[in-house]
Amino acid sequence: MDKKIKIMTVFGTRPEGIKMAPLIKELERESDNFITKNIITAQHREMLDQVLQTFDIKPDYDLDIMKKSQTLSSITTKVITELDQIFIDEKPDLVLVHGDTTTTFAAAISAFYNQISIGHVEAGLRTWNKYSPYPEEMNREMVDDLTDLYFAPTKKNFENLLKENKDEKKIFITGNTGIDALKYTVNDNFDSSEFKEIDFSKKIILLTAHRRENQGQKMEDMFKAILDVIQTDNNLELVYPVHRSPAVQKAANDVFAGSKQVKLINPLDVVHFHNLIKRSFIVLSDSGGVQEEAPALNKPVLVLRDTTERPEAVQTGAIKLVGTNPLVIKENLSSLISNSDEYQKMAKAKNPYGDGNASVRISEAIKYHFGILKDRPIDFV
Ligand code: UD1
Ligand code: UDP
């Protein structure tokens, strides 16, 4: 192929930004082969801007769609409508989307309507449960029905795609680009004035929680269970960078405000957050990305969800699915705090999600697909 390949990335939320950033950097390094243009929907505003600043990414297009307490339908319709004209004008050879958000789904359908090839980064994750996580499971299933090039982080994700009769030749096992991001962020002696509220002489329990299917009473009950355990031991401190979703802010404030052993802080930029994982004792999370990052930093994660699309780390023992039942959360958290054998086993378990080279593999897979490279890249194992 003589002409350069025009690639447009589309992303909108914090996790998509963090996991697309290392890939964007890699595509930009390959400027002899690729013209890269980046579109942000800004489904998240402040939380995405933090990521753009950290990685010094200047978007070519900013749809700026975020509204307070936005609905799934409003995000979907705005993204599809706005992307249409951009795709008509730019005519990219490939659109890259990431993961399973509503931006991801809307961007994929818009690319399909314009008959543009779609590359799905983080393809093939499944719970096979329509409403858990909601709406992410259906977003990623629908995107994979539209996808032309699949970048599956693990062998398990590859197998999931084969079960759906996807073309084996179009699937590349790459590792997760979220693990690549750690190379940009983690630093052995990291400290910051932003951590001044946190008492590192105590054992830090780091919490993140935001899932739509947990919001409301369920989330408050989970938080109360966690607070009960924290209050049994003065040497524990709970740190929670609270997601900007109004529903999450309400639950966090209603349950935790006023407790001396809890630090509610603003969402951290990813450099601070990754280094805070590193300085924590245990991570509690319903997040997708955190289930991958914490094992790579040797920190046990109790996953506050009823299902996970990341069974690999459950199998290696690095994360444990404890669900949303308050009694089960209490039991598991207390046990992990007090039982050092159990703790060490989790902390030392293998990270199955990547070796930091996922972005290079994706870039090579694209070059192979467009005939620039003769050989298929070697899969991540
Ligand atoms: C979205 C994704 C979810 C992903 C999560 C990562 C969908 C449907 N959900 O969920 O898959 O795990 O992002 O965090 O795509 N807000 C702000 N500022 C921000 C970000 C959010 O004020 O920077 C507030 C707004 O009021 C917004 C609300 O949070 O309406 C919810 O944001 P939204 O993107 O709809 O859902 P998330 O729960 O963040
Ligand atoms: N994260 C961050 N700052 C925070 C909390 C999380 O940068 O205060 C990062 C985290 O390291 C991970 C990503 O945000 O890379 C996870 O995002 P989130 O939990 O919002 O979404 P999910 O992964 O569940 O889709």
Automatic annotation (TrEMBL):
Q: Name the InterPro entries on file.
A: UDP_GlcNAc_Epimerase_2_dom, WecB-like
Q: What is one Pfam family matched by this protein?
A: Epimerase_2
Q: Under which EC number(s) is this enzyme classified?
A: 5.1.3.14
| Keywords from the UniProt entry | Isomerase
Q: Extract the GO molecular function terms from the UniProt entry.
A: UDP-N-acetylglucosamine 2-epimerase activity
Q: Where is the UDP-N-acetylglucosamine 2-epimerase domain?
A: 28-367
Q: Which CDD domains match?
A: GTB_UDP-GlcNAc_2-Epimerase
Give the similarity note.
Belongs to the UDP-N-acetylglucosamine 2-epimerase family.
UniProt-recorded name of the protein: UDP-N-acetylglucosamine 2-epimerase (non-hydrolyzing)
What organism is recorded for this protein?
Xylocopilactobacillus apis
